Amino acid sequence: MRTDPNRTSTFPLTGVRNLGILAHVDAGKTTLTERILYATGTTHKRGEVHDGTTVTDFDPQERDRGITIFAAAVSCTWDGHRINLIDTPGHVDFADEVERSLRVLDGAVAVFDGVAGVEPQSESVWRQADRHGVPRIAFVNKMDRAGADLDAAVASIRDRLHPVPLVVQLPIGAEDAFTGVVDLLRLRALVWTGDDVEHLPVPEALRDEANRRRRLLEEAVAELHPAALEEFVAESTVSARTLTSALRDLTRTGEAVVVLCGSAYRNRGVEPLLDAVAAYLPSPLDLPPVRGADGDERTADPAGPFAALVFKVNATGTGRLTYLRVYSGTIHKGGTVLDPGTGRVERVARILRVQADRHESVDVAAAGDIVAVVGLKSARAGTTLCAPDAPLVLEPPVVATPVVSVAVEPRTAAQHERLAQALAQLVEEDPALVVRADRETGQTVLSGMGELHLEVTVEKARRDHRLDIVVGRPKVAYRETVVRGVSGFAYRHVKQEGGAGQFAHVVIDVQPSDGDDFEFRSAVTGGRVPSEYVRAVEAGCRDALADGPLGGHPVTGLRVTLIDGSTHVKDSSEMAFRTAGRFALRDALRASTVALLEPVAEVTVTVPEIAVGRVLGDLSARRGRILGSTARAGTTVVTASVPLAELFGYATRLRSRTQGRGTFTSRPTGYAPAPA
Fold this sequence. Notes:
It is built from 15 helices and 38 strands. The protein is of the alpha+beta class. The protein has 5 domains: 13-280, P-loop containing nucleotide triphosphate hydrolases (Rossmann fold), CATH 3.40.50.300; 290-386, Elongation Factor Tu (Ef-tu), domain 3; 404-472, Elongation Factor G (Translational Gtpase), domain 3 (Alpha-Beta Plaits); 479-591, Ribosomal Protein S5, domain 2, CATH 3.30.230; 596-673, Alpha-Beta Plaits, CATH 3.30.70. It has a 7-stranded mixed sheet, sandwiched between helices. Helix 3 runs parallel beside helix 4 (120-132), helix 6 crosses helix 7 and helix 12 (531-544) packs across helix 13 (574-591).
């Protein structure tokens, strides 16, 4: 037994549930989280998304936009269980927040709109949970809306997500008349009047349908679970107790998904959902031991060596918060932990039980806990923390590759340093962001998972750091190349200003090269240009490559041959020949036929089959050249070569053309002639 410092009751490790709320944007995740907090007595007033009064959507941008942007952790208790819950974002631009949350969760509640069923981002988060092996139960929300249909929603779950859905409830009433559910395991009705729920006999009008669905549930469970099958064959029925045990096993192995329904907004169906979380989702003890990179394993034992994984870092006005999931052992306030990646040992100044933006100090965190700690300076998302005398490195969450970029700069030069500090802090908090300085354009480029992701990031920098930021499209790094060169181009550099002067005479051929590199050769005979001056001419030519004649872009793909030249006994020098080489090539390029090159990327687009035509048309409009396509289980993978300048904004356009279900990756492949 483990004592909770904030409560008088105790919680065995078997009573801990670490779960996330997953769904498409606007399916009702945050409203459901608010009702869970209200039903468990954690809050005494129901927060509303449209009023900006929710506990988990506490950031000003979340309240302004009415969507969840940052994963928020809360804790509550229900029927002798501690539930550590993370409300995750539903917008595709913030999928990395979901990824990092799923890495440390033991289970999840997938929320579906009772009218829309499975939506595009529902598929994405479901696949993310599949990759992490996270057991789920499904909650079909908004059953009070016009057009809500539990059977249609379940059919979409089966057809698009491919689990075995096991429906354990039957709605009482439809749309505005939705008042409760029939519990098919115990064949009783749960009817809500305001915030109170009554347990009643099944209404006469629904009795036959309830019995029919109970029979279907028994048959479906018996097909999947040996103990249920044995009882079904022997008794021709399956008891509620056996069904509960079988549903628990099937949920935890991922062989099936329990489906419940309700209306979070009207506070109907929340209590049975909490009962299902306690009954079916696993505790930390039900999961296999975590395995380190060296094969070492740690079980969920509070008495074992300490091991935890950082999944979120947040800089607040009162200090740096490091959110972590404890997998093994116990950490006390004032204790020390090792970051095995850096070898740094740090002291935990405080341990906090998190309630979104509110925190409650505790003295101890043990295996199974999700807490925030204060005092760590170097830990980042994905960092393993462990006991100094028992090193362990856990697999970090996978960080997605950014797909959209913008150029950012302060409006005044005085804010340059502050902008750099702000961007460094934002990248520390959100690993999906990448900041780089483009050497060729001189721009500071901010990259992320989508245009909304970057918009939120820039607004956060403006609000939190009081910066006036200008945002623009990144400049494309063009190149110039020689199409038709010149031969025998002579340049004489003479400078006389008293004392030793400068003299250099060179004759060069300029031609396109076979590759993209710069080639320099010497064909001078008879020692007319000494070898040390030849090297100086090459250096001067390389200097001239930085600024082409068309637009000052770097020049590539040419071959320069030094064919002749002459020297002066006193005035020739390496500096003079370097200068001659630079100006000779500059003027020779102006006399040549030069073409502009633009960067090209190979784009791999994965889209549903029904959207292939729209995607191909859009790629063609972006001057893309289709390289090939492959069909894969309901999707098509299209490969194309597309100019980089045409990819700005493509992520948003692709999502709109594929209902959010299309994804793409790109990699630079070189340069191609730009249109005149």
